[in-house]
Write a structure and sequence with these properties.
heterodimer, A: 568 residues, alpha+beta, FAD/NAD(P)-binding domain, 8-stranded mixed sheet, 7-stranded antiparallel sheet, 11 helices, globular, B: 179 residues, mainly alpha, 8 helices, 58% helix
Chain lengths: 568, 179
Amino acid sequence: MQNKFDAIVVGTGISGGWAAKELTEKGLKTLVLERGRMINHIDDYHTANMDPWDFEGGDTITQEAYKRQPKQSRTGYVNKKSSRHFFVDDLEHPYNDDENKFNWIRGYHVGGRSLTWGRHTYRLSEFDFEANLKDGIAVDWPIRYKDIAPWYDYVEQYIGVQGRLEGLPQFPDGKFLKPFELNVLENHMRQSISKNFNDGRILSNARTAHITEGTKPGLGRVTCQYRNRCMRGCPYGAYFSSNSSTLPAAEATGNMTLMPNSIVHEIIYDEDKKIAKGVRVIDSENNESYEYFAKVIFLCSSAVASTSILMQSKSNRFPNGMGNDSGELGHNLMDHHFQVGASGTFEGFKNKTTYGRKPAGFFIPRFRNLGGKTDRKDFIRGYGYQGGANRGFMSIADSKEELVSYGTRLKENIVKPDEWTASMTAFGEILPYHENKMTLDYNKKDKWGLPTVTFDAKIKENEFAMRKDMKQQAEEMLERSGFKDIYGWESKYVFGNGIHEMGTARMGHDPKTSILNGNNQIHDVKNVYVTDGACMTSAGNQNPSITYMALTARAAKHAVDELNKQNI
Amino acid sequence: MNRRIAIKRIGLSFGSISLSTGVISMIKSCQSPNADLKFFSSNQISFLDRVLEIILPETETPGALSLNLSKFVDSYVSENIRSEDQKYLIAMIDEFTHMILKSENLKSIDQAENNVIEKYISDHIDNGSMIANDGKNYSQICGLFREMAVNSYKASEYVMTNKLGYVPIPGYYDGNVDV
């Protein structure tokens, strides 16, 4: 097989798919390498059309799944029968988190986590890009909102994002399709929250990467059918995934060579030319090693995996890992802390219910530390809430109140509509602490002889103080919206459980304190771009995927311009 | 670990399911009863069938037996309950049946009429202070039987589509529908 290309893209998830599309559409012959197996859009979504009763014994995490996927199981939801095949076997893909528990939730297959992502799509704002500089922590982002805004526009229009325009600076509007409507109780909450709080907070429609009107480019992508089975892969292509959208676009150019089962473990450095010249790959099926060469390399294999590859890319020039002049490679690991919020019961709207299963509810954007009366003394940065309101059916407990223990009346009761309930959980920013890190353990190798990742990260005072407020405000908003039986909860957050790993190869102005520059290039290896979560300088509180897409498209344009100018 | 914890864990995990057994599989299995049991013995399943039917009886709509809820319970217990909890579950069911046999002076639970079994369920369910002839209380296992019945009922195709308004492909969303 040919081993020379114009570009190599490592990874096929959210970022890799975008790199593949942009580079091939600009005419570059591009090799796209994926460590996992092939997943074809629709054909390989074998659970997508299964109804609940088609799962014998329920759609559950089975004891067998707990055995093979002990770490993926910690989430409590990703590896139910309906989506288990999209998450790794932990025994085959081990990592180390003995010091501090870390949930590294992964999917090794073409499309990666773009198939199973939460699909919430929120832009970072100027508050986020300025945050480190203003607070005097970590390093400053080398870009500002204006640098990325046109790229947000570009990717949103391509993938299809539904949402409601709100005109808030901390919650920048985008190019949205019509929103999933709020239901009758969510609308009531929207009005109550605006009326009863004077700090500018709002409840808006969740913004997600679903098509709600018309079509989008890709493999027959059409409007959402409100089945809420997104995590199994969508036969309608209604939510964005690499498999339905960017990879077919890349394929259509004729410039893409896609190779699954190819584990990239090293970028080859050319000591003479002082650039990267290619990658080393192990075929995951037959263990053979290969080398492929290209003028430019896009590392898009997810934060932890990309940094792991850089760490393994040792040379005379970079004895501590490619681009690691600063010693920051692997540090500043971030996620979003969550699993804190509140739920409650609403006694009104007894004559109302809903039809259809919309795959997203509401979002309450950040309302803390935005200046003036929103500023807090106990923590910096902020958080947002994801939530929803629903009307379900009576439970055994409801029936008990009527002293019906069993029999005909119990049978009648349990299919009666229950009260409305609403629930919200907060997602908060984790600061970029130098001490939160990943390293490689060369004593513990995987079945391909590659070192395993060791995590050592935890949240600290700022996050703990924020969590108190997250719980309290959730309770208060429900209370002031007229809810009863309000229950605030906080479970122990395990690092990584947000499945938003970020940092470890951060962007910055200075090679002495960062790995990447403002164009996502390694400072001193200009033909290597890292555009996944590894590049994040701070985390914001927003679900990060749309930012990776925008940064990847922006970096691809930069790379092609630089190639044309023969700068790289 | 004790039985109280085991039963709580089984109950909790039953409470977390949202899914179901099918009418088609029910018809199939009615033709060849208990042919594909995964966990329970056919004796245990026939007792379970009667208990579940007492909790959710046939009325003008299908009950536990017609919906073959025990098949769902069998699969569920087989796939989702830890092996040590499975043992406790069997032990608790056995204790409950032995208590009935002893109190009624019967040799086999098949000989117990449905109204006899119902009497014991009625005495113990939701009644933590009831003490049987053997000095024990059976509110927990009876509560678990109900948990199994209700969750598998709500997860069945018949109930989901006819009683709970489940539509496989809704096509649109309306957040303000009159009941």
